[in-house]
Design goal:
mainly alpha
Length: 169
């Protein structure tokens, strides 16, 4: 399952080949059906497994005891997050695909968005505006990493990350 999660984050579900995935896992193509009912089952289970990002975000927030929100923002907008999609946040990679996919992936994606919003809102002490701020923050984080990965100019990519970081903190 970890291999599927990494592949989905780094390569996108649309390009995920069962044969390649099983080969990387050291299994035969026929062995796939011993682990999953179908390719859709694989995608659903891998998307659900991507919830591991919640713990990662929580740890990032705790790294800055003075300002947990800033700790989370700094970690999310780090160059290493931009440069290693296979270990990064699935919201960045799966957003467009989930929008076009079936209900299973949309449900898993929505659950993750709601979980992250709750985590971020909690960092603001659940103030009156905490949910709105969490939505703005998460949207900016995901959008900044998506754009930073998609542009060719590394300097511009860095500017995107740094500008959003500065505005959010």
């Amino acid at each position: 399952m970890q291999i599927a999660s990494r592949k989905i984050r780094s390569e996108d579900i649309a390009r995920l080949g069962v044969a390649d995935l099983m080969n990387e896992a050291g299994l035969t193509h026929g062995g796939f059906y011993k682990h999953f009912d179908s390719r859709d089952d694989l995608v659903t289970q891998a998307a659900a497994a991507l919830a591991e990002g919640t713990a990662k975000m929580g740890r990032s927030a705790q790294e800055n005891a003075q300002d947990p929100r800033a700790g989370l923002i700094d970690a999310y907008l780090a160059k290493r997050h931009r440069d290693d999609p296979a270990t990064g946040c699935a919201l960045v990679t799966l957003g467009a695909v989930a929008g076009r996919d079936d209900r299973h992936l949309k449900d898993a994606y929505e659950k993750q968005v709601r979980t992250y919003l709750d985590l971020i809102a909690g960092l603001d002490g659940n103030s009156e505006d905490a949910r709105a701020e969490a939505i703005l923050t998460l949207s900016a984080l995901v959008g900044a990493v998506l754009m930073a990965r998609a542009v060719a100019d590394e300097g511009f990519s860095n500017e995107l990350l740094e500008t959003v970081r500065a505005r959010l903190t």
